[in-house]
Structures are given as structure tokens and as C-alpha cells.
Design goal:
The complex is a heterodimer of chains A (about 400) and B (about 160). With about 400 residues, chain A is of the alpha/beta class. Chain A contains 13 helices and eleven strands. Chain A has a five-stranded mixed β-sheet, sandwiched between helices. Chain A has a four-stranded antiparallel β-sheet with strand order 7-8-11-10, covered by helices on one side. In chain A, β4, α7 and β5 form a beta-alpha-beta unit. In chain A, α3 runs antiparallel to α8 and α4 packs parallel to α8. The termini of chain A are far apart. With about 160 residues, chain B is an alpha+beta fold. Chain B has a single domain, classed as Sufe protein. Chain: A (Alpha-Beta Complex). Chain B is built from seven helices and three strands, in the order αααβββαααα. The chains are: A alpha/beta (about 400), B alpha+beta (about 160). Chains A and B meet through α2, α3, α9 and α13 of A and α1, α2, α3, β1 and β2 of B.
């Protein structure tokens, strides 16, 4: 098994591979693409950008890949086959993975259903609302940790209220599992969605926690051979389940360390940027949050142009220009951010494999580019002249 | 077994660089002309707003995520000799306004009025979702020309009043 330092080194070296080792596939190219390929081909020694978008997805921890590989090529049996050793060994791996997932959230393994991801888990939970036995029952569904601004909801209190009113409580914990300590009994959660690729596990797998006591009755979304106690038919993909289990176990062991590491890096990034650049706002509650998701608004600079400037870093923004409509992020709007600040926001995602050097580089580049873009901004110019932007009547397009 | 698994582990870890996939590049990357205007913007800056030869156009709104300020300096023969811009907006907006300042230099006022957003969009190969940037650039140049015209009219009115 790879040690943590080795795995970090490998992750680091993955980024620095120069492009002359690449084969370009030009077989399925359209005419517009051809001109762009030419421009891409010129940048022969370009390195891949740094990865600072851990909320979008995470790389698989090499130790998870280690755990999965035998189940791809050697132990390839269907875990639901009851009659031979191939089935038995896959089933035992699947059950072991189920226990690993359950341990991470202090649940019973019988309460875990493997799904294809958190989206499927969410859909399954919502469907419960329609098929429930008691006609007056409703469902409360809350995100544990928000993926755009990192804010943590007061899940314990919500759970307490729901339990006292006999209302089902579902939470989408995709961004929270393995990052903050979770105990489904303390939180009084009835349903919880888990996503594999957000916790350094494989893509294409997730889980749904379904409480047994008091029983949560569910109608299946997917019908078929009756696997997963009839709740979710379809062969459980053993390698993916094993990967999810391994990711959960690693996350449980390293939760505290990761949290401290990510907090340290986050504080470093925010302090560096805020000390050198004025008029920067951090969106979301400063206390009740997961530190690895930082959403900053740089006033008078537009988000997408800043992303373009930071092309050596893979980031994401809550700005409108990156979506098809001109609407900024609904999350920022909901927390009452000014519309022009909502267009100026960038999300920095820090994770297990982020390094101090990456954070320093990102901070410096960010500071440099914000200064440059502010020089190009008419809003900054007006503010420097002392004009109050709120007093101007803008021409609507 | 461990060695075999380790070997099987290491192979997938070596370069799988997919970022330059053609379809991806066609959809998600910026066109190189836009990138060029963005990295080497022409004519960023300001002209003296109060000068009688300068027309200033300020269009857009911060709430929409796009604000362009375009300034033109016109000589006494009605020819545009200098242009400057400042933009709060995405890469395509910056490129559109930078391109417009390049185009108007050396043109007469009448010629500058004929600049269309479709020309800007074609020159920069803007995708459909970014067409509003070119429209705003056209609005900006028209606003600047309008401002200049209004200034000139005011000056004429002043001159007529003074001579009476």
C-alpha cells in the first residue's frame, strides 16, 4: 500500500507532465475545432493548471485505486451470485465496503444502499415524499455543506425539530462526508446522500443512508432483480463499491488531519489575498463553514475575466458568464449578496492533496491579476474618483 | 502479488492528459483572438473627460456583469484620432471593447457609426452565448459618438449665444 507521502508526491508529479508526450486525436473534429487545435498544438510545453476545484470533483486517492484494481481484473464475480466462489468473494468485498461507509457516519451497515451517485440518492429520497404511508407526512431536505460557499447548516437542530414533528429529514451530505464528523443518530437524520467522487473515491458510485429505527419506508426508483433489499435493483458494481468503501475508511482515519491541513491552507490563502488586495469579501458565514470551500468576491472585477487571467489554476466561479444565462449564482443571491459582487465571485477549492506551494502560487497570481484587471475596470476608476456607484443610473441593455 | 498490483497501479498514474481534446477545446476554450485581446489589450486607459474633443460612452450595468466605458478623441476635421476603453466584464467583453477601439482609430464619425455588433462577433468568433458582449460594444461606441455630438452642439449654442 502506498504511504501518504508517496501518494502526495505522485499526485504532485501528475500535474507537471509536459505536453510533448501527448498524442492528439484528430479523428472526430469539426471545422471550427480545427483552428482551435492548431492554436492548442503550438503550446507544446504547456503544463496542466493547478487543481483548486475540489468541490467539483476530487482525484481518486491512489490507495483507493489500489483497493479497487483486484476487483476489476481478478475478483470479477457478480456479488449477487450465490452459487460459486466468484460471487461469494465479491459479496464479501461489497459487504466490507458497506461497513466502511456505515462506520464513517456512525450508521448500521444494513442502513446503506449503494447507488450510482448522490443525485440518484437524492431522487430516491424525494420520491419517498410521494409514496409515503402517512398522508400528512412531509420531507425536509437540506444540504449539509453547501458546495458553492462552504457554509454548514445547523443539521442537529433541524433534525431535532423534524423528529419532534414526525417529519422525515433528508440531507445531501456529498460535500460533508469524510470532511466533517457525521453521526446520523446525533443528527437524527433519516436519509443521507453520499457521493463517491467528492471524497477521493471513484466516479459513478454513491450511497444512500436509510434509517431502520424508526423505519423509513421507501418505494424503489429502479425496479428489477430486487438487489439492495429491493430498494435499488441492479448489480452493485463491486469495484466501485470497494472504492467507495476504501475512500470512506481512509477519510475516517484521516478526517482530523485533513481538516487541520485544509484549514491551515485556507487561512493562508485568505490572509494572503485579503492583506494585499482591498475590497475583497468572503461569502458565507465565517464560523459555520467547511474551510476547504472558499468563495471570494473581488469588487470591481468580473469573475469570468479573473478565471481567464488565472489560467494556470483550475478554479470555478459563481459568475453568470460561465453559465448559459446571465443570472449569477442562486446561492449568492439567496444570501443577499449585491448583484455586482455576485458577478465578481470565485470559488477556491482546497483538498487533501493541495500543497502550500500551490496555495502561495494561487494567491500571488490572484493578487497580481486582480490588480491588473482593476486597472482596466471603469468601476474601480469611478470609485477612486470618489463616485458612489449606487448613485449612478446605469443604461440597461 | 503486491508487486504485480503495484505495477498495475503505477501504469494508470502516468500521464492521461485530456485537456486538449478537440471537442472540449472547441466548446470550452476561449478563441485565441479573444485571449490575445485579453492578454495584450490595446488602448486601455482614459482620456480627459472634460476636453471638448472627447466623447465618453458608458453602457451596461454592474448588476448585469458588463460595464463598458469607451472614450474617443476627435480632431477638428471630424476624424477619430484616439480611443481608450475600460471594461468590467468577461474575457469576450474585454476583447470586444478592445477591438472596437482598434477599429475606430482613423475613422470619421460617420464611418464609426456603421460598426455593427455582427462584425465584432465574426472577427472574434464569439459563441452565441457571448453575442451580448459585441452588442454592448456597439452600444458603447454609439454612446461615445452621441456624447461627442451633444458636446459639439452645446459648444455651438454657447458660441451663438456669445456672439448675440
Amino acid at each position: 500500500m502506498l504511504s501518504k507521502t508517496v501518494s502526495t508526491k505522485i499526485m504532485g508529479s501528475m500535474r507537471g507532465f509536459p505536453s510533448h508526450r501527448i498524442n492528439y486525436s484528430t479523428s472526430s473534429v469539426n471545422v471550427v475545432g480545427r483552428e482551435l487545435i492548431k492554436s492548442r498544438a503550438l503550446e507544446k510545453d504547456e503544463l496542466r493548471p493547478l487543481y483548486m476545484d475540489f468541490q467539483a470533483t476530487t482525484p481518486m486517492d491512489p490507495r483507493v485505486l489500489d483497493a479497487m484494481l483486484p476487483y476489476q481484473v481478478n475478483y470479477y464475480g457478480n456479488p449477487h451470485s450465490r452459487t460459486h466462489a466468484y460471487g461469494w468473494e465479491s459479496e464479501s468485498a461489497m459487504e466490507k465496503a458497506r461497513k466502511q461507509v456505515a462506520d464513517l457516519i456512525a450508521a448500521d451497515p444494513r442502513e446503506i444502499v449503494f447507488t450510482s451517485g448522490a443525485t440518484e440518492s437524492n431522487n430516491m429520497s424525494i420520491k419517498l415524499l410521494e409514496e409515503t404511508i402517512r398522508p400528512e407526512t412531509s420531507l425536509v431536505s437540506v444540504m449539509t455543506v453547501n458546495n458553492e460557499i462552504g457554509v454548514m447548516q445547523p443539521v442537529e437542530e433541524i433534525g431535532r425539530i423534524c423528529r419532534s414533528r414526525n417529519v422525515f429529514f433528508h440531507t445531501d451530505a456529498a460535500q460533508a462526508v469524510g470532511k466533517v464528523p457525521i453521526n446520523v443518530s446525533d443528527w437524527k437524520v433519516d436519509l443521507m446522500s453520499i457521493s463517491g467522487h467528492k471524497i477521493y473515491g471513484p466516479k459513478g458510485v454513491g450511497a444512500l443512508y436509510v434509517r431502520r429505527r424508526p423505519r423509513v419506508r421507501m418505494e424503489p426508483l429502479q425496479n428489477g432483480g430486487g438487489q439492495e433489499r429491493g430498494l435499488r435493483s441492479g448489480t452493485v458494481p463491486t469495484p466501485l463499491a470497494v472504492g467507495l468503501g476504501a475512500a470512506c475508511e481512509i477519510a475516517q482515519q484521516e478526517l482530523e488531519y485533513d481538516h487541520r491541513w485544509v484549514s491551515l491552507l485556507a487561512k493562508r490563502l485568505v490572509q494572503k489575498i485579503m492583506s494585499e488586495v482591498p475590497d475583497v469579501v468572503m461569502n458565507g458565514d465565517p464560523e459555520q463553514r467547511y474551510p476547504g470551500c472558499i468563495n471570494l468576491s473581488f469588487a470591481y472585477v468580473e469573475g469570468e475575466s479573473l478565471l481567464m487571467a488565472l489560467k494556470d489554476v483550475a478554479l470555478s466561479s459563481g459568475s453568470a458568464c460561465t453559465s448559459a444565462s446571465l443570472e449569477p449564482s442562486y446561492v449568492l443571491r439567496a444570501i443577499g449578496t449585491d448583484e455586482d459582487l455576485a458577478h465578481s465571485s470565485i470559488r477556491f477549492g482546497i483538498g487533501r492533496f493541495s500543497t502550500e506551494a500551490e496555495v502561495d502560487f494561487t494567491a500571488e497570481k490572484c493578487i497580481q491579476q486582480v490588480k491588473r484587471l482593476r486597472e482596466m475596470s471603469p468601476l474601480w476608476e469611478m470609485v477612486q474618483e470618489g463616485i458612489d456607484l449606487k448613485s449612478i443610473k446605469w443604461s440597461q441593455h | 502479488m503486491a508487486g504485480l498490483v503495484a505495477k498495475k497501479c503505477i501504469t494508470p498514474l502516468v500521464v492521461i492528459r485530456r485537456l486538449t481534446y478537440p471537442e472540449y477545446a472547441a466548446q470550452a476554450a476561449y478563441h485565441k483572438k479573444v485571449v490575445d485581446h485579453y492578454e495584450n489589450p490595446r488602448n486601455v486607459g482614459s482620456l480627459d473627460k472634460t476636453s471638448k474633443n472627447v466623447g465618453t460612452g458608458l453602457v451596461g450595468a454592474p448588476a448585469c456583469g458588463d460595464v463598458m466605458k469607451l472614450q474617443i478623441e476627435v480632431d477638428d476635421q471630424g476624424k477619430i484620432v484616439d480611443a481608450r476603453f475600460k471594461t468590467f466584464g468577461c474575457g469576450s467583453a474585454i476583447a470586444s471593447s478592445s477591438l472596437v477601439t482598434e477599429w475606430v482609430k482613423g475613422k470619421s464619425i460617420a464611418e464609426a457609426m456603421t460598426i455593427k455588433n455582427t462584425d465584432i462577433a465574426k472577427e472574434l468568433c464569439l459563441p452565441p452565448v457571448k453575442l451580448h458582449c459585441s452588442m454592448l460594444a456597439e452600444d458603447a461606441i454609439k454612446a461615445a459618438l452621441q456624447d461627442y455630438r451633444v458636446k459639439q452642439q452645446d459648444i455651438e449654442i454657447e458660441a451663438v449665444k456669445a456672439s448675440n
